[in-house]
């Protein structure tokens, strides 16, 4: 019988950037977009270490039962949002990922719980994120935690050439 590994959730540190960057690539693969990641580890490092930080992170670290060596097996990357309707800040969860081999240990729930605690401690009014509509395991997991889908909203995005064209439009400015 193998021992259950011990684990912890903690704030992401500079020493974690390479491992978190690798998790981002794994997440992109899971989300059927393995070539979509343009960000480098240095991009991630800059965002996490900006003053004030523009990106925040939590990592789930698992100890190997055989030798006690710690490995980062999960992450939650987030930033501060703002609701003009509520007049309060919130947290936008950009990425949540736990390696398949570490699923079932409670890491995803622990990462979200830590993020919810951060939201409450800061006096923020909400914690939000996107989920791909085909990701049934994630949708079920989030619903079991009390999350509700916002079915009346549709995400829009402008990138690349369309973003550049919009930025270059000759709009009268006062």
Characterization of this structure:
- Strands 1-2-3-4-5 form a 5-stranded mixed sheet.
- The protein has helices at 17-30, 41-49, 107-121, 136-144, 160-167; strands spanning 7-11, 56-63, 70-83, 88-98, 127-129.
- It has a single domain (7-167), classed as 3-Layer(aba) Sandwich (Aminopeptidase).
- With 174 residues, it is α+β, with helices and mostly antiparallel strands.
- The longest helix is centred in the middle third of the chain and has 15 residues, at 107-121.
- Helix 3 (107-121) links the parallel strand 4 and strand 5 (127-129).
- It is built from 5 helices and 5 strands.
Provide a brief overview of the structure.
Helix content is 32%, strand content 24%. The chain has 174 residues and is α+β, with helices and mostly antiparallel strands.
The biggest beta sheet is recorded as:
5 strands, mixed
Task: Write the CATH fold name.
Answer: Aminopeptidase
Q: Ends: how far apart?
A: 73 Å
Structural class: alpha+beta
Architecture blueprint of SSEs:
Elements (H helix, E strand, L loop, with lengths): L6 E5 L5 H14 L10 H9 L6 E8 L6 E14 L4 E11 L8 H15 L5 E3 L6 H9 L15 H8 L7
Parallel strand pairs: 4-5
Antiparallel strand pairs: 1-2, 2-3, 3-4
Features of the shown structure:
174 residues; alpha+beta; Aminopeptidase; 24% strand
